Amino acid sequence: MMSDVSAPPPAVFFDGASSRRRPVTLAFSDRLEILQDGRTLAAWPFADIRRADGAPGLLRLGCVSAPALARLEVPDPAIAQQLAARCSYLDADVPQRHGVRAIVGWSLAAIVSLVLVSVYGMPLIADRLAPLLPQAFERRVGDVADRQIRTLFGDKVCDRPAGQAAFAVLVEKLRAAGSIGETVQPAVLSSEISNAIALPGGRVYLFSALLDKADNPDEIAGVLAHEFGHVARRDNMRHLIREGGSSFLIGLLFGDVTGSGALIFASRTLLNSSYSREAEHDADSFAIGVMHGLGRPVKPMGELLFRVTGKQRDSSISILASHPLTEDRLARMSAEAAMSPGAPLLSAEQWQALKAICK
């Protein structure tokens, strides 16, 4: 009948159709025979037997040609050793050391790929995608950002008539020199924060605290021209795509403009705004071109920024900062003198009216 019959060791068989435990004995012939009370419950070809997960000291087996959930548990070490000798492919589906190394290697490669996409891929996507976004889309994002800005920094737009008239004169000169259309909509926002900010869609806010610190129209004109440069290059949308990453792109694909994508910009990008070195350099270049076109110096803008931010000369910061340091920018602006002096941008009376626009 059967060759090489072992002593009947205890084993437990699960047929894969029910959860019933069946005490069985085993017989080795040209295959593994699983017996209960002399009746063959299953016969597994040795080549089809595979090791399954089991407790320490317990050999747990499955069979690729048997029902998927069928299992055989062999607690006897001697029988387990005999089985292992006959089952040439016992560990064929179990990751070996080289397999584990391969899994770890591919996992590390995936992590590196994600990092590379974040560092290099998203900026490239942002540079390519931002110029293609419709103005209507950008304005909708800007509307949400505008509400966030007004909530956080103050909802009052300064509109004292004389100051508003002087501001309009200054803005019109900057628009003409920079060939900027009506899409740019600057305003003075009453706020205790010394800053200026450009939003998607063309809104530019000059905060009143920064205006209070200014000594002359050239300082404010340079700051506004710098922000106009960000608008012209659509830097805020580039920054949004870079910082928002995949969540913003998914929102963009599904038309979620006023939801997660815009809120990412408002809460993460605007509130912690930090343009890249390249974006800040290019915005400065735009401002320099505008001020030179008006025959006005660029240095006053740098002096104002330097007064507001103070000295920042730590070389480690200079390397790691996401935009050029104020002193570095001041040195550049000081070297960029206008070729021919132009007329003052505002009269003394207009300047005083602008300074009092929020009074």
Offer a quick outline of the entry:
With 359 residues, this protein is an alpha+beta fold. It is 52% helix and 14% strand.
What does this structure look like?
This protein has 359 residues and is an alpha+beta fold. It has three domains: 11-86, Pleckstrin-homology domain (PH domain)/Phosphotyrosine-binding domain (PTB) (PH-domain like), CATH 2.30.29.30; 95-132; 133-355, no CATH class. Helices cover 52% and strands 14% of the residues. The strands form two sheets. Strands 4-3-2-1-7-6-5 form a seven-stranded antiparallel sheet. Strands 8-10-9 form a three-stranded mixed sheet, with helices on both faces.
**Strand element count:** 10
| Mean pLDDT reading | 78
**How large is the count of helical segments?**
13
Low-confidence runs: 1-6, 116-120, 312-323
Category by helix and strand content: alpha+beta
Percent strand:
5-15%
Strand ordering within the main sheet: 4-3-2-1-7-6-5
Distance between the termini: 109 Å
Query: Main sheet, how many strands, which sense, barrel?
Result: 7 strands, antiparallel
GO molecular function, one term: metal ion binding
Keywords: Hydrolase, Membrane, Metal-binding, Metalloprotease, Protease, Transmembrane, Transmembrane helix, Zinc
Family: Belongs to the peptidase M48 family.
GO cellular component, one term: membrane
